[in-house]
Fold this sequence. Notes:
By secondary structure, this protein is mainly alpha-helical. The chain has helices at 17-25, 39-45, 70-90, 101-114, 121-134, 141-148, 158-162, 185-192, 218-236, and strands at 7-10, 61-64, 201-204, 212-215. A two-stranded antiparallel sheet has the order 1-2.
Amino acid sequence: SGAVVQRSVTIVEGWTFRDLRRALEQEPHLDNTLAGQDDAAVMAALDESGTHPEGLFFPDTYLFGKGTTDVEILHQARERMRRELDAAWNARADGLPIGTPYDALILASIVEKETALAPERPRIAGVFTERLRIGMRLQTDPTVIYGLGAGYDGNLRRADLERDGPYNTYTRAGLPPTPIALPGAEALRAAVQPEERDELYFVATGLPDGSHEFSRTLAEHDAAVRRYLARYRQRHSGR
């Protein structure tokens, strides 16, 4: 009948490049040509030698037929991210404290890792935009965790926050040098169209919905942190 069987592979928002490579290697219907090669070799296969791979591939579900290689999927995802990032950047708000599409990609990756709630993303982007505008450090845990790499054991310690490094936004001002994950379309839009409310802080509420409480002042933020800790203690007191 001429029908062609198509398979699919899903690239998930918030994944790192390491996660993406692992997923492609585990997909049995793809021709895996990159196994055992380092990231530099992968980018060379995409004709982008010397390019840092993190954040450059758009998370989505990609269909493929028999004989498709992992390089072809990566190429599709790379071109899709170019289009999505260009569209977001061309629709950016005026007066942002970021100067390039790559800056927007970095910021979007942080927003992606900070919340899974779509309505919160523009507001979280607004907090980081305001901090960048006034020269305040971003102080975001996901960048520190990314910098720890394989050394991260699931427990972020005070010593980790105090140890300087290129991805430690507690010790260094501005954006980290590269994205820290794969941002989706909503995070990209949030980064370039932030919801600015003069808020400088946010913290988890501790509620089951995974939401955050936002504050304009440190005093308000400290009170929000106390509320979170009270909910945390209450939730774990029976264990």
